[in-house]
Specification:
By secondary structure, this protein is of the alpha+beta class. Helices cover 14% and strands 31% of the residues.
Length: 107
């Protein structure tokens, strides 16, 4: 999808991170890293980056972006020589009410 957008002169980038279970039914399987792509388009609010996620194919909230780049190699979470063992990684996501979010933005 990224290559197709770029062939049509539409700016596109790869993004990777974590996608929590906010606003959707809780999945009993442990969540892993996620990847999606972003496209720079003219929209109702003006030009901006829009997120597209072929895996879930519906709008989601609670994305934690860890890296953005040209492709998966550009956004490697770990780059090492030899075996890399991830011993532990915990991410906690909580839904915040709009009132609380407004207070945080005002601070």
């Amino acid at each position: 999808a990224i290559t197709l957008c770029r062939c049509m002169n539409i700016p596109a980038r790869y993004a990777t991170g974590y996608l929590g279970d906010i606003g959707v039914p809780k999945d009993p399987a442990p969540m892993d890293f996620s990847a999606w792509f972003e496209v720079f388009l003219e929209g109702p609010e003006g030009p901006r980056w829009y997120t597209f996620d072929a895996r879930h194919n519906r709008p989601r909230i609670g994305r934690i972006v860890m890296a953005r780049g040209r492709d998966a190699t550009d956004c490697a979470l770990t780059t090492s020589f030899g075996t890399a063992i991830l011993a532990r990684f915990d991410v906690h996501t909580d839904e915040v009410s709009e009132a609380t979010a407004s207070l945080a933005r005002a601070a």
